[in-house]
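Dear colleague,

As promised, here are the two records you asked about, laid out in our usual form so they can be pasted straight into your sheet.

NAME FIELD: protein one
SEQUENCE, THEN STRUCTURE:
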Amino acid sequence: MELRGKLALVTGGSDGIGREIALQLQAAGADVIVTGRSAEKLQAMAGLDFGTIAGDLSTPTGVDAVVAGVTDKPLALLVNNAGVGSEYELDKAETLENAAHCIRTNLDAPITLCTRLLSVLRAQPEAAIVNVTSGLAIAPRAGGSIYCATKAGLRSYTQAIRHLLKDSNVRVIEALPPVVATNMTAGRGGKKMSAHDCAAEIVHGIRTEKSEVNAGMVKVLQLVNSISPALARRIMIRF
């Protein structure tokens, strides 16, 4: 996909992987609008010549604000990157709202944005949807059951709509990051991929029209999974 002159929307684009994707799309010549919840971070992105839309994607109002902000624009690239973790505990009903918040942000919002913005994307000569899932969409870890479920659900949805749109002008790409050094993973040990390097692989995948971008160590996980899904699950469940 030629990025120069294209209008892109990056949800969760004021921090972490999303911010790096936005910066690299802009460097490639795209016009970029980012969404986020932090007024301070959005203001900083506006100072770098990004368009901004404030909105909490776990709420209908937030989703409506994002849709309204781009419906009348020549949107050619939708990057569903916004995501949150969940403090859900299996035996504690009081954590169910945390789980619901995660599901609304990570799964419901991307599905809604794909649905409501598809006509805008179809109106362009060339367009793409990028759904950012996770290596944990391939095989879950026990400590993040709700997050893993949302990413696995988004992976399945992405594969399905890719088939539905295969004869259209809208390319559907899934990006699967490994553990990336962001605010979400702060405090977790182990080796982490930088947000910059992860974004670079995703943007390269967009430019080279890949259907799936396995970033960093997810390449290894995919290889293991292709040989033995059961082994991949055994490795990841304790990760």
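NAME FIELD: protein two
SEQUENCE, THEN STRUCTURE:
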Amino acid sequence: MFSIILALILGGSYLYLRRRDARMLRNGLVLVAACWFAVTGVSQVLAQWFPWTQWITLGIVALTPLAVVVLAGFLISNGLRMIRREGRSLGNLLSLIAGLAVLVLPVIAALLVITHNPVAIGLAALLFFLCSYFGVVFVVFLAYAMVYGRMKHTVSPASVVILGSQIINGKVPPLLRSRLDKGLEVYRRASAQKELAPLLIPSGGQGADESRPEGAAMADYLVAAGAPSEHVVAEEKATTTAENLQFSATIAQDQGRGGAMVIVTNNYHVLRAALLSRKLGLEAQVVGSPTARYFLPSAFLREYVAILTEHKVLHALLCLPFVALTLFLTAALVLASS
């Protein structure tokens, strides 16, 4: 019963935090914790009322190693598919690397433990702690990314910012086209509800392998798709998501559209764009466009790595207790064996 009460408290906290500002990753932590305690509490109640349900819980636990193998196989298969379709790059290799890590790391930990060497056992413990920590962080990120991506925007935008991605031969490829189509959908809906239509800002600079700025190619697509040219102002200098948002906000201000904005990107990128918009102090909501399914595992992993990198100092500090605990356990094992 305590777990259910705690789940209700956490659930209420999540709703409050989400209403206050949905663009916080801590919301995802509270949501995942609420779900965990809810499942735990319900399982405990069912075990008291129907003792046979304990066998279901034991069965799920027993199948965990199989689930790990299945997950690893899926990630490896997806990684190979990404290489075939998208080419070899570090970003496209992420699902393959993750799948191999899921298979190899438990084996390494087991080999370290069976050496019976205190230092090796300590390393195995540290590996377990760190993998558990980053695994929980990934679950929180993925769960809240999916939840945030399904939220409906409620602002009446003064501008609609569409984040750029790589163009091919000066044209927008399917991934970027889905963002532009979503941006047009938001623009048309907002135009029908207010006298002053929002400003469309396609944002993206020119990469080394691109023949022109992404923003220019995106603007051409929007105008060809029916958006009035006077409602489209391209941003053509940004090279990162943060610059996309900063430079686009400046354009909106210069054009007299400094109010709320809706930011459009692909669904896997929505949460990080939202976190950045909050960090930059922008009044904004982020919506996502569909992405090919085979592309999603690597894309979510790439976003996860980017968020870890942006908060590397915080995560390093949070990992220090695990290092301290490992040193304590190693020292205790050394003393016990001497």
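A couple of things worth noting about protein two: Strands lie at 159-163, 199-203, 261-266, 284-289. The domain at 159-291 is CATH 3.40.50.620 (Rossmann fold).

Best,
R.
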